[in-house]
């Protein structure tokens, strides 16, 4: 296996950053994840745009142009001989003696790329069966729109899900509203057939898969609402699912152990998953 670290392709086992990297010490770093289909990057523009936005919010310069970064991402994929999986990019502010404030003299950002294989058949089997989610109180900071590596609440939520035999955890805010998943955006098809996902003016990550899926859904004869929905509404929904570069679109068949709808993947989720995958493959670079 091969990773990209600060300008070089190195053996994954030898890949390392400095102990005073600010990403390591302070989570002063952001990341992006692209799904990869047949060796190509899915939703490239959406992820680049969000990368630039996350970096901008942290006042870190883009470490290289989009074109150069595309080359690095694709070259890392190529050297790993992986066709289907996930490409992970992390950019930290760089290495400096520990101090909360930015280094007075700017340092070069640290750039790391790794690749992970995903078995498309196993993913398809999971989607055909559907998965369960648990719920957990929303306890994250107020800037979930920044894709920072500061993910401890998400880590603890996902671990709780795993221990409960579930695939994902949905955060529930103080008003009983579903914000999003630990690593995905949440959706329902309401009892009267409306496709609902939370609007991105809220404190959630602006999922790239979410945005593309909305475009796909708009070509279908579906009523769509971007608005908050409550856990109560989700429990009464016909269908539920979540989206993200990792899961693509994953039907949810149970919330906290209670079946959603008929307790199996619904027709809207199944159709949208197929349409999303077709669209993402067609637009991949
Ligand atoms: N929400 C959170 C908290 C995430 O970590 C992710 C992705 O990892 C998403 C939503 C989905 O975003 P995307 O579709 O861009 O992968």
From TrEMBL:
Recorded GO CC terms: cytosol
- Pfam families annotated for this entry? Aminotran_4
Question: What GO terms in the biological process aspect are recorded for it?
Answer: amino acid biosynthetic process; branched-chain amino acid biosynthetic process
Q: Does the keyword Transmembrane helix apply?
A: no
Source organism (scientific name): Phenylobacterium parvum
Question: What family name appears in the similarity comment?
Answer: Belongs to the class-IV pyridoxal-phosphate-dependent aminotransferase family.
Class of this enzyme: transferase
Enzyme Commission designation: 2.6.1.42
Cleaved signal peptide residues: none
The entry's protein name is Probable branched-chain-amino-acid aminotransferase
